[in-house]
Amino acid sequence: MSKALFLDRDGTIIREKNYLSDPHGVELLPRAAEGLKKALERGYLLFLHTNQSGVGRGWFDLEAVHACNRRMLDLLNLPDPGFSAICIAPESPDEPAVYRKPSPRFINEMLIQHGLTAEGCFMAGDTIRDLQAALNAGITPIMVKSLPGLSAEEKEFVQNHQIAVRENLFELVSRLP
Ligand SMILES: [Mg+2]
């Protein structure tokens, strides 16, 4: 196995709810489950990498994040192995970043642990921070945007870095090499 898909959570797999801490608020985005199942079928390892600064800001605890993740995993109902690892970055933006995207640390660690090469790895996310983490790690970023349009800043970023934009995770996975 030499290929992997790293994924952001909020706004990429589940609907962005801004500092979600209640598992009842977890709502899958259209075609997300279908896309992730297809990625597993195609032999991609899946990794979840989510910034959760609500923890660092003291707004909710790590257990709330785990509860939301569990709810998401129940709804996704992925076949084995599902996600090979999950990274929750709890730092607030004013703390030194350890795993907080755009830090490439989690991606770099997974490449080593799983014997992956950067060429076979992709990062799907809905913000510049996700895309920048991928660039910092030397893997290929892909933007997932379910909203009608990109902001001017996002448009400029994806153009400058020649980053593909996909409507949803199914479309994204269908067009992976
Ligand atoms: Mg996001």
What's the short story on this structure?
The chain is α/β, with parallel strands linked by helices and 177 residues long.
Describe this protein's structure:
Helices cover about 35% and strands about 20% of the residues. With about 180 residues, the chain is α/β, with parallel strands linked by helices. The chain has one domain (about 5-175): HAD superfamily/HAD-like (Rossmann fold, 3-Layer(aba) Sandwich), CATH 3.40.50. Strand 1, helix 1 and strand 2 (about 45-50) form a beta-alpha-beta unit. Bound molecules: magnesium ion. Magnesium ion (MG) binds near residues 8, 10 and 126. The site of magnesium ion has 7 residues, from loops.
The top-level CATH class is Alpha Beta
Structural class: alpha/beta
Percent helix range: 25-40%
Q: Over all CA atoms, what is the radius of gyration?
A: 15 Å
Uncertain runs: none
Q: Return the CATH architecture.
A: 3-Layer(aba) Sandwich
How many domains, in number, for the residues?
A: 1
User: Within the CATH hierarchy, at the fold level, what is the topology?
Assistant: Rossmann fold
How much of the sequence lies in strands comes to: 15-25%
Bound molecules: magnesium ion
Following the backbone from N to C, one meets helices and strands in this order, namely EHEHHEHEHEHEH
Sheet having the most strands: 6 strands, parallel
Provide the residue-averaged pLDDT.
96
Output the strand order for the largest sheet. 3-2-1-4-5-6
Q: Strand tally, please?
A: 6
Distance between the termini: 14 Å
How does the overall form come out from the CA principal axes? globular
CATH superfamily: HAD superfamily/HAD-like
